[in-house]
Design goal:
By secondary structure, the chain is an alpha/beta fold. It contains 10 helices and 18 strands. A hairpin with a 2-residue loop joins strand 2 and strand 3. It is globular, with a radius of gyration of 25 Å.
């Protein structure tokens, strides 16, 4: 039974709704090809202090968690799909263009020729994506908003086509932006190195994962530990090697025995094409006598998870009373650690566990109602499938490894600032 908001002041509808079906790989490929076909140009910049540096072609698709990036994307869009702001800009631009045309032609009767073509009209649009790493300074967006760089962008591009800004956070990017990188979306920990920095001398481990569909594919650096391996995923290990005083790198692509062929091929492509500073790339298949150097770099061979079946059932719900009544809503399948809202309580279903994650600033009412909601959900799933799930309470900052492994690229929470929004 679904609780009525009018009679009880709560809405648990999302808990009793079936899990959304993932988009098929074929559909993802079709829509990605369409988006890339419509893409006219993409200019990429990285924000370093108060400077904006154009990214070299070899760095496009590589992101660092302490940096922010700007992408100027011009693409074709049906005018009927414009939002109000884009439409207003388009109308002004058309009026200015018509006025200039009439001036060049020496005036006119003020009448415009009607377009008798029945085809839907398209126009070029510029979207300025501002990508913010999870460890980047929170003042980067205000700095960009007030910068002369942004002003120049809007003056130069805005005089030719409608323009809009979109701020996006690490691992919360929309599918269209992800599609422009064709599966090679790599997130490194730390700050983008400069030419003055010393070469990296530590091994780096990356997990390649598709959250919900192949469009949501990312290669994210994780802790360099064999505990974080999983037979259901693929990984990339970048290993520094000192040869006669010169630093070079070798790359291992580790293919989990239960990973899909699609994920395997995508990871091998990333390893061979996206890391251009390595000498050799070796593909290792789980259980095929991986070399000792591989396990040594991961802190020794330890027991790790042998299945990621939970990817087919995992669901994340948000519990909040921000609307004036208690409501549960479901996050999309492409969720990440930063979707855990500190002001709320979250319910995470892994197929074997139902976790109730408690944010530090959630209210007592939210905590009590969220726990009762999780118990209702637990019973509902058991009645529906016959599968019993263990109920566990998890507090922010005290998550166990069983919980952490469900997230792609888990890291320490940032310290909260007092009076921050």
């Amino acid at each position: 039974a679904v609780v009525s908001t009018q009679s009880t002041g709560v809405d648990l509808t999302a808990l009793f709704t079936r899990r959304e079906q993932s988009m098929s790989s074929g559909d993802c490929t079709t829509i990605s090809e369409q988006w890339n076909e419509n893409l006219e140009t993409m200019s990429c910049f990285v924000m370093e202090g108060k400077n904006y540096t154009r990214l070299p072609a070899g760095e496009q698709g590589h992101f660092y968690t302490e940096n922010c990036y700007i992408f100027l994307c011009t693409y074709w869009m049906f005018i009927s799909d414009f939002n109000d702001d884009l439409l207003d800009q388009y109308v002004v631009l058309q009026k200015n263009a018509n006025a200039g045309k009439k001036k060049e032609e020496g005036g006119g009767d003020g009448e415009e020729d009607e377009d008798e073509d029945d085809e839907e009209e398209e126009a070029l649009v510029c979207r300025v994506y501002f990508w913010q790493g999870r460890d980047a300074s929170k003042v980067c967006w205000p700095q960009f908003s007030l910068s002369s760089f942004r002003t120049k962008i809007r003056e130069k591009i805005g005089s030719k086509m409608p323009i809009e800004d979109e701020r996006c956070y690490q691992q919360q990017e929309n599918m269209k932006l992800l599609s422009y990188f064709k599966g090679k979306f790599i997130i490194h920990k730390g700050k983008r190195p400069s030419e003055k920095d010393s070469p990296n001398v530590r091994p780096r481990l990356y997990q390649v994962r598709q959250n919900g569909n192949i469009l949501a594919q990312r290669c994210v650096e994780i802790g360099c530990s064999s505990l974080l391996l999983n037979s259901g995923f693929c990984y990339i290990l970048k290993l520094p090697v000192n040869k006669d005083g010169d630093m070079s790198y070798i790359l291992y692509v580790w293919v989990g025995s239960k990973s899909s062929e699609e994920l395997m091929n995508a990871t091998i492509d990333i390893g061979k094409e996206a890391f251009d500073d390595v000498e050799t790339v070796s593909v290792l298949y789980e259980g095929s006598n991986e070399p000792d150097i591989f396990w040594t770099a991961l802190g020794g061979r330890k027991e790790y998870d042998r299945s990621a079946d939970w990817m087919d059932v995992i669901r994340l719900f948000r519990c909040s009373n921000e609307r004036g009544y208690f409501a549960v809503s479901e996050k999309c399948s492409d969720f990440c650690q930063d979707d855990l809202s500190d002001e709320d309580v979250m319910i995470l279903d892994s197929g074997t566990d139902v976790f109730v994650w408690i944010g530090e600033e959630s209210s007592d009412v939210e905590r009590k109602l969220a726990l009762k909601s999780a118990q209702l959900y637990q019973q509902h799933v058991q009645d529906l499938t016959g599968d019993a799930r263990k109920l566990s309470i998890v507090r922010r900052g005290k998550e166990n490894l069983r919980f952490i492994k469900l997230f792609h690229g888990w890291g320490p929470f940032r310290a909260r600032l007092k009076n921050s929004s």
